C-alpha cells in the first residue's frame, strides 16, 4: 500500500502483480501509476471509491494505491553467507516497523547489503514496514533465521568479520577494514545487543563518539555504518587509516 511501495512493487514484479486498485478520481500521480502498471503488464487495474479503498486497506495508509503482489522471497542464510563480497546487516530484536523499514531502505540504497534477523522478537513484514522502506524491500536480499547468534557464528565460520555496533566500544567503525566479507550487527532500539549476540560478534565498534546523547536511532546508525562500508569498498583511496588500537 502507498504510492512509492506500489511503484517499486510494479518495478520489481511487473505482471506478477495480479491486481492494482486505485482510488477513483483525476489525481495525476495515480494516473501515472496506472499507466506504469499497464506498461508493466498488470492485467487488472481497478478504480474504486475511497470508501472501498479504505475497507481494503483495513486501517492502513494506502495513499490511493493498493497492489496484490507475490510474497516476498526469503533467502536461506546458508546461501547468502558464502558470498565472496558479503556485506550484510543483522537486526537483533529491532521491533519498530519504521526502523526496520528504514534500515532496509538504507541497505538497498547504499551497498545493496543483505538483511538477516531472528524470527522471534522482530518487526513483522507488514505493509507498515514496506511503506517505511519506500518500496526498497522489493529489491532487498532478506534472510530470516531461527537463531541470530547461530547465524552470526556461521558467518564467522565462513570467514566473515562480524561487527556489533555498540556506543561504548573502543574502536570506531571507520577504523576497521570493511572491504572483506562483513556482517554489521544492529541492536534493539532500547537495549542494544543482547549478550548472546554480542558474544557471537568477532568485535565491537562505535559508529560515532557520543557527545550529548549516548546513542543514535537504530536506522540512523545502520545508514551511517552501511555508508562507511560502501565508501571503503567503492572509494578505497578515501579510506581512513586504521586506528592505533587495530594496527
Characterization of this structure:
- The chain has 247 residues and is of the alpha/beta class.
- It has two domains: 3-68, 2-Layer Sandwich (60s Ribosomal Protein L30, Chain: A), CATH 3.30.1330.30; 77-246, SPOUT methyltransferase, trefoil knot domain (Alpha/beta knot, 3-Layer(aba) Sandwich).
- Helices cover 36% and strands 16% of the residues.
- The protein contains nine helices and nine strands.
- It has helices spanning 3-13, 28-39, 50-57, 77-80, 97-110, 127-132, 148-157, 195-200, 218-234; strands at residues 19-23, 45-48, 65-68, 87-91, 114-118, 142-145, 161-165, 182-186, 203-205.
- Strands 6-5-4-8-7-9 form a six-stranded parallel sheet, with helices on both faces. It has a three-stranded mixed sheet with strand order 2-1-3.
- Helix 5 (97-110) runs parallel beside helix 9 (218-234).
- Mean pLDDT is 89; it is low at 238-247.
Top keywords for this entry?
single chain, 247 residues, 60s Ribosomal Protein L30, Chain: A, 2 domains, six-stranded parallel sheet, three-stranded mixed sheet
Evaluate the radius of gyration.
Answer: 20 Å
DSSP strand tally? 9
Topology order in helix (H) and strand (E) letters: HEHEHEHEHEHEHEEHEH
- Average pLDDT for all residues: 89
> Which architecture of the largest domain per CATH?
3-Layer(aba) Sandwich
DSSP helical segment count = 9
Oligomer: single chain
Q: Structural class, from secondary structure content?
A: alpha/beta
What order do the strands of the largest sheet run in, or round the barrel if closed? 6-5-4-8-7-9
**What's the number of structural domains?**
2
Q: Major β-sheet, in short?
A: 6 strands, parallel
How much β-strand is present in the residues? 15-25%
CATH superfamily of the largest domain: SPOUT methyltransferase, trefoil knot domain
| The CATH class of the largest domain | Alpha Beta
Kindly, what is the distance between the CA atoms of the first and last residues, rounded to a whole number of angstroms?
A: 49 Å
CATH fold title of the largest domain? Alpha/beta knot
* Overall spatial form: elongated
| Helicity level | 25-40%
Low-confidence segments, given as residue ranges, are 238-247
